[in-house]
Amino acid sequence: MNKQLKLKLEGISATYSTGEKILPVLDNVSLSVDTGEFVSVLGPSGSGKSTLLKIAAGLLKPERGKILVDGRNMTGLSRLVGYMPQQDLLFPWKTMRQNAALPLISAKLDKKETKARIEELLPVFGLQGFGEYYPDQLSGGMRQRGALMRTMLIESDLLLLDEPFAALDALTRQNLQEWLLKIWGHFRRSVLFITHSIDEAIYLSDRVYVITERPGKNAFEQIIDIPRPRSKSVTITPPFSHYKKLLLEALADNTAAGTK
Ligand SMILES: Nc1ncnc2c1ncn2[C@@H]1O[C@H](COP(=O)(O)OP(=O)(O)OP(=O)(O)O)[C@@H](O)[C@H]1O
Ligand SMILES: [Mg+2]
Fold first, then answer.
1. How far out from the chain centre does Cα 193 lie?
2. 258 assigned to some structural domain
3. Among 79-83, 112-116, 148-152, where is mean pLDDT lowest?
4. Whose C-alpha lies nearest to ligand 1, atom 4?
5. Are residues 134 and 245 located together in one domain of the fold?
6. Could you list the residue range(s) of the whole structural domain that residue 76 is in?
7. What is the tally of structural domains in the chain?
8. Ligand 2 centroid vs 193 CA: distance in angstroms?
């Protein structure tokens, strides 16, 4: 057993049943994340990416397959992981500080300790002075940083992030990508990151998986061998274009419309 392996999903298949209808969503998908590695999953809309992440988070049981965390079989067990769903899910009636405290309260952490941890992290996440603001008083980028802060407050060295920047404008998204890399360099957690954006996947990741249209199957895997730290200017270098071409082709080959 590889000791460095943080997460392994092995032969995951999943279906949803609604009434009479059975919808196959994932078909024998396998992937892994090494300790400290940043891994992305790219795939067409509806290919089962969010479903895969929910399965990794222990929120959904797969029909078949195994989930191993630190080499231990976690299939069917609920576990505390840093999971950020596709919608940020900050409660509008709670301030940023109260929102951030929620996972710590449910983990029954000491109140004083909770407060100290949040105070420490507000400036790291660019939210100093905004702890008492409600979500609708913050910008979209600030809300996403707040939701990420809440996710990072969970003492799990595995982060599962579902398209955290998808709803943002291009400039804010770029800034947050750079910022996420800095934070990741600082905390060095293992990350499984879902995205639609090829550029985002290459810029952030050590390795990228491509899955096919629904039912999602493994289609392609690419190591991104670009040295870190990465500045935004790597996105206009030949190695970046090379990876982009490979991933574009893999996505086109595995999307019926061939337009992704
Ligand atoms: N709770 C549910 N009940 C029934 N079907 C569902 C449920 N959740 C998702 N699905 C279906 O499963 C398929 C995959 O959904 P999923 O959200 O995993 O895709 P995705 O790859 O994350 O898509 P996107 O890129 O648009 O976020 C879709 O066809 C969706 O309609
Ligand atoms: Mg999704």
1. 3
2. no
3. 79-83
4. 16
5. no
6. 5-81+156-253
7. 2
8. 11
